[in-house]
Amino acid sequence: MRGKNLRREVLKSLAATLFLPAAALAQQGAAGPVKLAMIEGLSGGNANGGEAVFRNLAWAVERVNERGGVRMRDGRRRPLQLDRYDSKGQIEEALSALRSALDDGAQFILQGNSSAVAAALVDAVNRHNEREPQRRVLFLNYSAVDPVLTNEKCSYWHFRFDAHADMRMTALMGVLKDDAQVKSVYLLGQDYSFGQGVLREARRQLGLLRPDVRIVGDELHPLLRIKDFAPYATKIKASGADAVVTGNFSNDLTLLVKAAREVGFEGKFYTFYGNALGAPAAIGDAGVGRVIAAADWLPNLPTAQSEAFYRAFRQRFPKPQDDYVHMRMQMMVEALAQALDRAGTMEPVAVAAQLERVTLDFYGQKGAMRAADHQFQQSLVVGVMDRQGAPGVKFDVEGSGYGFRVIRDIAPEQAQMPSSCRMVRPAA
Question: Which residue ranges does UniProt annotate as crossing the membrane (predicted)?
């Protein structure tokens, strides 16, 4: 236990060293920091995804602190402080990390790289806030996209800044429905709430938009435990599928597309996360024109503001392996800073009331929080993989030589979907 606590303190100290502007503010007499606790898998099968999250959040926090932090009602400014807690991608570890973060005085919980973990955290935060109203916290979700989190399980204390899975699937299906080459698809996903939901929605939307398309495979596999996807790739090729639809991420996607290349599968991949974390490099030339990804933003979005944003990120993180920037994470931290400024306090009910009405225009990306279910409404894009230097592909991914050309840009009002949330709000 002592070793575990020591390791956590070392990681937190490492995080603190990144925010020199916050330290400078403290020396100038600013009030104590606003504590943000990132609970994420920083070891295990999705460690690369967790570290990518940390880089994004670190950069966003630095930007807020460089302009002076957030202003309270008394006129004093507070820096943001980002602490990191390793959940190892496991629910019990995440709940343990939440308890540690609460003991450390965290006021805002940040998590996203697992919908199963997010659901457990929503329940735990709800219970904590009911038991200890004087120590309430808010949960800001940047990547957990199971639709249930802003529908049946919606919570006043939870805000989601990523488009949920059904919204992303709708964006993908908007492209697939016009793809006359696709006559049959293989559905493959991770066996947990998110992966199950992706395949369920794929079946529903295919039935509505492309009833002529045959589903020749429909399969779930263990999450982040498969080391060799050759058996799956062999089945996909043997099925005669023209395309694979998958919500896989991290190693589960990279190893899948690599295995598909090695067995000679020549179909397309319709993905949620095929645009980074090793997938483009793994599939190589075989992915040109064949890997399609839906996202909240892509580096080759053809606007000057978008290019300026991406160049600023690459200047901050110049190593090719660090090249995975998330626009939504930047907007999440900007939204929190805006809400804190307007509330003038860190009291969670007051901050939540301001987060509910946040609107943002960040490097040309517009978004607004929907108060009814705390689902951020933003634009979505769909891109197709191509070689860097091809028309519309100025930037590659992770130094791979491949990038994503934007083929569809979906406005927030087109991307939004109805919600079944019945929000329970705290008493005044």
Answer: none
CA geometry: angle 45, 7, 47, nearest 5 deg = 15
* Domain ranges across the chain: 2-163+310-377, 166-295+379-415
Report pTM.
0.91
Q: Dmax over Cα atoms in the chain, in whole Å?
A: 68
Residue 191: partners with Cβ closer than 8 Å, 6 or more residues away = 220, 221, 222, 223
Range name among 16-20, 76-80, 383-387 with the lowest pLDDT average: 16-20
pLDDT tens digits for 263-301? 999 999 999 999 988 889 888 998 999 999 999 999 999
Q: How far is CA 178 from CA 12, 213, 219, in A?
A: 49, 12, 25
Tokens of 240: 């005669």
Token pair belonging to 215: 């589903």
The CA dihedral of 55, 58, 60, 61, to the nearest 10 degrees, is: 180
In this predicted structure, the answer to whether residue 159 has a pLDDT above a threshold of 90 is yes
Close Cβ partners of 425 (under 8 Å, ≥ 6 residues apart): 156
Give, for 176, the enclosing helix (H) or strand (E): helix 165-176
326 Cβ neighbours under 8 A, 6+ residues apart? 52, 53, 56, 142, 143, 296, 297
What is the distance between the alpha carbons of residues 278 and 299, in angstroms, rounded to a whole number?
Answer: 16
Q: Which amino acid, residue 311?
A: R
pLDDT at 359 over 70: yes
**Domain 2-163+310-377: assigned CATH number:** 3.40.50.2300
Fold of 166-295+379-415: Rossmann fold (3.40.50)
CA pair distance 326, 359, nearest whole angstrom:
18
